[in-house]
């Protein structure tokens, strides 16, 4: 019988290069049987390491797909729905390293979850598995679920895509387990903590958006916001705002994927920064005019503008400074959680008491940015204010496209006014293209058990 040459199976038995437990950037080597291991530290390190394969595509999808950035070079211009006004075609193989790398992270996590006797290691692995599946389900929708440390190499049925509901159920279960076991105190080595798991869980609830999820999200996010300081997490002061993106493992970062210019990921290096800085031919003049206009409307006092936008030729992002390929990719930071908490408070109930609490949280972010408190006085106005500050605060962190989907602001025939406060080309495309194409090589390798998303 033919054996499945599927990318997450090729890592089915692993031992990794010797490394200290604090080094999550070690390149794993493959092949010895996991059954022979007694110390799973380096297997866990591999689960961290392979998250790096998602960094560049999440940056591309999160900002270039949305209204924050322009893409110029084909076929990458087809990602840019807001600039093109339509989606024509996309290179599915762009997603192959993203897809395969995350399944390698998942398989590494599965080995730790199944084989390790260390409760903290198991919890970290569950956090990383949840993070990987959260990226996969947002990007592709239904995906293969693998919970085995040694999946069959001959049973193709295990590759069948599972429903979005099933994927979210797994993510939530893993994060609940992780938050229960992980310590709250900020890690000095960048490992997952209780508040990273709890903050991500709140974000997952806000994204899934089932009935009752806003209340569930509010509970998780509230715990992070109220407990962060005692655990070593704090908003960085406005005067030092730029250091959030140039100083690794800073006090505001709840969790980041660690990167290094000396280690290439499966895109031949994590070059997300070059797409934003105008150093890449795919995006020579990356800043979308509507983002520039949004900062202009925010006012000259906004300390974020000089960090996010460097007015030069070309106009580009200055967010990652000179750190370049050594800049870690922030997966979740405290400001993100605070703004999600404000959103949950505002959406759970349309009353003055809820708005008052939401305003307190939103104004924490505005005060840090050097801005006056918002004047939003209704649920609708506060919803728009929170969305606008999320755009300004999290620009070029891979968030905007997924926020627009949460807000239901990317819809076929949507008006420009519904998408932005300034005139931009109106995206007009089938809702098939809310998801991205499964890599064709993965479909072939599964003997077509894995199916393509509609429209591709």
Structure explained in plain terms:
This protein has 456 residues and is mainly α. It is built from 18 helices and two strands. A two-stranded antiparallel ribbon has the order 1-2. The longest helix is centred in the first third of the chain and has 22 residues, at 119-140. The two termini are 30 Å apart. Pfam families: SusD-like_3, SusD_RagB.
Range of helix content: 40-55%
The major β-sheet equals: 2 strands, antiparallel
Major sheet strand order: 1-2
CATH architecture: Alpha Horseshoe
Based on DSSP secondary structure assignment, what is the total number of beta strands?
2
What is the element string, with H for helices and E for strands?
HHHHHHHHHEHHHEHHHHHH
What is the CA-based Rg, rounded?
A: 21 Å
Give me the secondary-structure category.
mainly alpha
How many angstroms separate the termini? 30 Å
The CATH C-level name is: Mainly Alpha
Which regions have little confidence, pLDDT < 50, spanning 5+ residues? 1-32, 412-426
What proportion strand? under 5%
- CATH fold-level label: Serine Threonine Protein Phosphatase 5, Tetratricopeptide repeat
Provide mean pLDDT, rounded.
82
Number of domains: 1
Shape: globular
Task: Note the total helix count.
Answer: 18
Keywords: Cell outer membrane, Membrane, Signal
Signal peptide: 1-21
Domain SusD-like N-terminal: 35-206
Pfam families: SusD-like_3, SusD_RagB
